[in-house]
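Researcher: I'd like a candidate sequence for this fold, 351 residues long. If you have to choose between options at a position, lean toward the conservative one.
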């Protein structure tokens, strides 16, 4: 294991923000990960787990404790079964499945971060979620000290949520396993309307896997959601806020406020989210509350390509970012009575 002291954490995040850690350990095997976690827990040392850093907002003061960067490697593809070490780069793993002719995660191409982070957030995009194909998660239980194999149901997946996110101090993901589909080189049925339009097909159709991946990468790049060091629109955590899910009463109140603000002919986006629940669009709320693409004059601004991404324009601080996030949250709440929830994990700070 590599160990550094007073180590900068900003370069390990896609925001490129945050102060140093007291100590930074880089683990390249599962045994090293387990040993580092147990050592920190036994000593009562605060522990921060870092994978690809694509979902982290670290405070300017940094992290007083041990930051553990998981850099494990390993890809095992046997038939339609895929196992990934937690430190594997997710988008590279997606590329390998497409090249192998296997369907199930092709629309998750271009999502930054590590494989081990995908079940925590139940990563999803363009009509696919990892929970649809994930079969097992191998994780260290920090309470019992055991290494467990958790099935899909044990993970308690929901929209951008899981048992791992609900109890963030409990488990450290070591490996993830998936059951993919051999559809003769074709994708899973295309679910997302935008993807279907871009592909020139109807929702429910299948297309060549390479076409699905290439189209999704193009859609993501057009929104600044594919990492590019030269493009400050990608110095972000992708979507900063989750799409709100409202009960019937809350949705009715939202519609009334939207009509008063925007006129009776405006129809906000609405998607079924279970019995008595409706999901609406955070991007729509932000834009209609007056925070359009490129909003801001400071060092942190809304992306010029997508209203849902808050970005570091090159020399921002975490406080700059949080000030913008708080402004957006307050503006949407005032306009529509809905409080947006941040998707990235905050370390040493909060909205």
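Model: Candidate sequence:
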């Amino acid at each position: 294991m590599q160990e550094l002291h007073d180590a900068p954490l900003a370069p390990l995040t896609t925001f490129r923000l945050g102060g140093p850690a007291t100590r930074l350990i880089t683990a390249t095997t599962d045994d090293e990960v387990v040993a580092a976690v147990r050592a920190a827990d036994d000593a009562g040392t605060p522990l921060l787990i870092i994978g690809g850093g694509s979902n982290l907002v670290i405070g300017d003061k940094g992290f007083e404790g041990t930051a553990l960067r998981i850099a494990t490697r390993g890809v095992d593809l046997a038939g339609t079964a895929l196992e990934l070490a937690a430190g594997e780069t997710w988008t590279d793993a997606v590329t390998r499945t497409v090249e192998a002719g296997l369907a199930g995660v092709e629309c998750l191409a271009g999502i930054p971060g590590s494989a081990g982070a995908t079940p925590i957030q139940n990563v999803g995009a363009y009509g696919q979620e990892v929970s649809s194909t994930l079969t097992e998660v191998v994780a260290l239980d920090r309470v019992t000290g055991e290494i467990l194999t958790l099935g899909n149901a044990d993970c308690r997946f929901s929209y951008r949520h899981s048992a791992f996110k609900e109890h963030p101090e409990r488990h450290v993901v070591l490996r993830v396993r998936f059951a993919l589909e051999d559809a003769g080189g074709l994708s899973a049925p295309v679910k997302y309307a935008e993807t279907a339009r871009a592909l020139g097909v109807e929702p429910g159709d299948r297309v060549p896997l390479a076409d699905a991946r290439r189209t999704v990468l193009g859609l993501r790049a057009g929104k600044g959601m594919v990492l590019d060091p030269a493009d400050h629109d990608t110095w972000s955590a992708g979507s900063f806020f989750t799409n709100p899910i409202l009960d019937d009463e809350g949705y009715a109140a939202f519609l009334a406020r939207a009509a008063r603000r925007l006129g009776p002919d405006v129809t906000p986006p609405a998607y079924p989210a279970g019995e008595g629940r409706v999901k609406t669009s955070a991007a729509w709320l932000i834009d209609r509350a007056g925070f359009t693409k490129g909003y801001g004059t400071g060092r942190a601004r809304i992306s010029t390509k997508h209203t849902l991404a808050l970005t570091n324009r090159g020399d921002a601080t975490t406080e700059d970012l949080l000030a913008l996030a708080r402004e957006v949250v307050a503006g949407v709440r005032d306009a529509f009575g809905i409080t947006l929830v941040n998707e990235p994990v905050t370390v040493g700070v909060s909205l």
